[in-house]
Amino acid sequence: MVRIVLAFCGVLLLSSCTLLTPEPGIGREIRWSSLKGWADDRHGESWLSLERSCIKLGDLAEWQQLCQAVEQIDDPSHEQARNFYERWFTAHVVFGAGGAREGLITGYYEPLLRGSMERTERFRYPIFERPADLLTVDLTDLYPELAGKRVRGRLDGNRVVPYYNRESLDSNPRLLTGHEIAWVDDPVALFFLHIQGSGRLQLPDGRIIGVAYADQNGHPYRSIGRELIAMGEIEKEDVNLFSIRQWLQRHPEQGELLLERNPSYVFFSLKTELEDGPFGSLNVPLVAERTIAVDRNVIPLGLPVWLDTTLPGTDQPYRRLVLAQDTGGAIKGHVRADLFWGTGARAERMAGLMKQPGRLYVLKPKPATP
């Protein structure tokens, strides 16, 4: 009898432990004082990003009053902005699998490439616009569980089949003939443009134009960094933008084959008038060091997020309020974010080296009051 009672208690104890483990995703509300460094941030620097979120979300019920209040405040001080966030939002922990709070924080930037509007012997690597035969299939109305998930493909007779992958497009340029919008002089730089999702071109006459993300071929992103690790070419702790670029430049023939292992392919549009920053998935300009890319299945786009991580390659704390306004093919998971560093040499250096552990805390709008 005693053994039965002890076994029963053990089952209860195990069940309690299971129940106490938070589900992956946005968790319980926490106090503002629980956010390390919250009182020290320059919250006013995030205001422009918040205004841009309101442009897209201001008609939603939970955002209406909040965004009306945002419109009444012009260029707030850091203290005013902090008080606003505390008044209109609640802070929540983001949990990963098994209740983990820590995840991976990486960085991205807006690269500058040398380009031309015409093909020449030097500028012979094309940037393509969205092709006319690329289909986007949205089955949300038929299958609500697929909300937010779109299938890309092409017609083959009366069948929809997957669109061409990178290997097919690179080996048969005729598949995209007529869709060239510019040319660049460096195939490796072009590949990294696909990874970053947007960039700028410096033309031979000195003018600078933008190239913005237009669409993607529907194939999943596959990290060539992981491929190089598996090949034994680069140690895991040494993988970053610069080590990968150096390897590709030193092994041009092997590099072509390696790039084809990433089947994802990005299409672009030209922007002759440059904005303050490239546009993210929320379709608003990104703000350097104040916007992040997230997995939209975990964190809804537009929400403020408290980012708690460290500077690239150091243990120095890097904590600040950012807004989730972009997505990325490699940004999948619960405690996962990609920080936009901006444009220029520093942005490239910081983004290229950033591979830090970090935590995320989502700020959710408080329920509207009568």
Detail the topology: elements first, then pairings.
Layout: H1 2-20, E1 25-30, H2 47-57, H3 61-71, H4 78-88, E2 89-95, E3 103-110, E4 112-116, E5 125-128, E6 135-138, E7 150-156, E8 159-162, H5 166-171, E9 180-184, H6 187-196, E10 199-202, E11 208-216, H7 224-230, H8 241-250, H9 252-259, E12 266-271, E13 291-294, E14 304-310, E15 317-326, E16 336-343, H10 345-353, E17 355-365
Parallel strand pairs: 3-16, 4-10, 13-15
Antiparallel strand pairs: 1-2, 2-17, 3-17, 4-9, 5-9, 6-7, 7-8, 10-11, 11-12, 13-16, 14-15, 14-17
Question: How would you describe this protein?
Answer:
With 370 residues, the protein is of the alpha+beta class. The protein is 28% helix and 29% strand. β10 (199-202) and β11 form a beta hairpin. It has helices spanning 2-20, 47-57, 61-71, 78-88, 166-171, 187-196, 224-230, 241-250, 252-259, 345-353; strands at residues 25-30, 89-95, 103-110, 112-116, 125-128, 135-138, 150-156, 159-162, 180-184, 199-202, 208-216, 266-271, 291-294, 304-310, 317-326, 336-343, 355-365. The chain is globular. The strands form three sheets. Strands 3-16-13-15-14-17 form a six-stranded mixed barrel. The chain contains ten helices and 17 strands.
